[in-house]
TrEMBL record:
Catalyzes the ATP-dependent biosynthesis of glutamine from glutamate and ammonia. Residues 17-115 form the GS beta-grasp domain. It comes from the Bacteria. Residues 120-456 form the GS catalytic domain. Belongs to the glutamine synthetase family. This is Glutamine synthetase. Keywords: ATP-binding, Ligase, Nitrogen fixation, Nucleotide-binding.
Length: 456
């Protein structure tokens, strides 16, 4: 866990007028930053110890609608407070906001001050602790894709999100010339994230008009999840300040590529110096530990797919021939695979999970990958031979759940995740998923109106 700004530096910056606002943020179930803007002097005087928020923030949907039926928070329980405990190691300046710093908060029970078990950060912290108990560090990196539009969010809303002008009129995957036209936002995004303590390796055009990918330097799992959510929030704020809009929807347009969030993951020794997946004498140079870890992720992929694809729209992305996977298998450097082995023959050898979309919550996704990897180690699973060829055309491979409904019911039955996360935590997120399905099932879509208004 690392920001780029110590508490002592913050106090000094506040006293000399360089910082006047501190954002104290939790991460909600949707992976968004929620919280308060503090007068900086008040934060350093007292609020750095703790503050409070309404517990409905971890029991509502993406529309901020309080959802009935949760055990953890409800109208019958009065929607009380939880504690927001600033993790001061995450303090950082936010260059794109004037005189502003940001800190990530843990969510604690109001009475016991224990981590609130169903909060996304607590779920990941629990799995990280399991790694630490075995002498492991989990290094993760998430590659985020998004569409950049020559629209504001207001203009996109007025167009009903149809006929939008993308930042580039045609596909510019890896093309320098076309992506130079997008540098107004992308250059700021790279440089200002770096200044905020989020090391950016590169950005590039992706496989859609105006589609971008940005790659953050790998880090310990919790630190990487913090980087991920700050990056998403900051990207939208930077784009908005430039009169642009960004979408992280998994599939915003039926005819265009979806937005992914590929997740690279590997285990290292507790001191971070020895890669535990690299064995130059092993098959694929992947150690027995690495093979068991990968085998666990493959075995339980259907059970944790919801943590990688949490919305109705998420499942529209899984289409053949779009660089999004449709099958649960692994392969050596094959982009049709659900899991791809990267860095073979080097200390950087790792498994890349390609299932997740850019709409995932990184804390939940990373936690699920760790839990399934550890299950593979505990069960001493044997890794199957890698698939070779076009996975889209392979009919006998197990498939990624095709709908939110399928993924939800598979999650609800997962003994592995209930053991790793706790029954109540899994029940909390199953309820979240079922509410999302319920909300969709009772709505009238544009597609239905187009097909049926006159023709039925």
């Amino acid at each position: 866990m690392a920001g780029n700004f110590s508490f002592d530096q913050l106090k000094k910056a506040v006293s000399n007028g360089e910082i006047d606002t501190v954002l104290a943020c939790i991460v909600d179930m949707q992976g968004r930053l929620s919280g308060k803007r503090f007068l900086a002097q008040y934060f350093v005087d007292s609020a750095h110890g703790e503050t409070h928020g309404c517990n409905y923030l971890l029991a509502c949907d993406i529309d901020m609608e309080p959802v009935p039926g949760y055990k953890a928070a409800s109208w019958s329980k009065g929607y009380g407070d939880f504690v927001m405990k600033p993790d001061l190691s995450t303090l950082r300046r936010i260059p794109w906001l004037e005189k502003t710093a940001l800190v990530i908060c843990d969510v604690l029970d109001h009475h016991t001050h224990d981590d609130l078990a169903h909060s996304p950060r607590a779920i990941l912290k629990k799995q990280v602790k399991r790694l630490q108990e075995r002498g492991y560090i989990g290094y993760f990196a998430s590659e985020l894709e998004f569409y950049l539009f020559s629209e504001t969010y207001d203009s996109a809303r007025k167009k009903h999100w149809q006929g939008l002008d993308s930042a580039s009129p045609y596909i510019g995957d890896y093309q320098i010339g076309i992506t130079s036209k997008e540098e107004g936002v992308m250059r700021r995004l790279r440089n200002e994230m770096e200044a905020a303590g989020i090391p950016i390796e590169n950005s590039k055009g992706e496989w859609g008009p105006g589609q971008e990918e940005i790659n953050v330097r790998y880090a310990e799992a919790l630190d990487m999840a913090d980087r991920h959510v700050i990056l998403k929030n900051g990207a939208k704020e930077i784009a908005d300040s430039e009169g642009k809009a960004i979408s992280f929807m998994a599939k915003y347009n039926y005819g265009l590529a979806g937005n992914s969030s590929h997740i690279h993951n590997s285990l290292w020794s507790a001191d971070g110096k020895t890669p535990l997946f690299f064995d130059k004498k092993a098959e694929w140079t992947l150690s027995t530990l690495g093979q068991q870890w990968a085998a666990g992720q493959l075995k339980y992929a259907k059970e944790f797919t919801w943590f990688l694809a949490p919305y109705i729209n998420s499942y529209k992305r899984f289409q053949a021939g779009t660089f999004a996977p449709t099958k649960i298998m692994w392969s050596e450097d094959n982009r049709t695979a659900g899991f791809r082995l990267c860095g073979e023959g080097t200390k950087g050898i790792r498994m890349e999970c390609r299932i997740g979309g850019a709409d995932l919550n990184p804390y939940l996704a990373f936690a699920a990958l760790i839990a399934s990897g550890l299950a593979g180690i505990d069960e001493k699973l044997e890794l199957q031979k890698p698939f070779v060829g076009d996975a889209y055309q392979a009919s006998r491979l197990p498939e990624i759940p095709k709908t939110l409904r399928d993924a939800t019911e598979t999650l609800a039955k997962s003994k592995m995740l209930k053991q790793a996360f706790g029954d109540d935590v899994v029940e909390h997120y199953v309820h979240t998923a079922r509410w999302e399905q319920f909300e969709y099932d009772r709505r009238i879509t544009d597609w239905e109106l187009h097909r049926g208004f006159e023709r039925y």
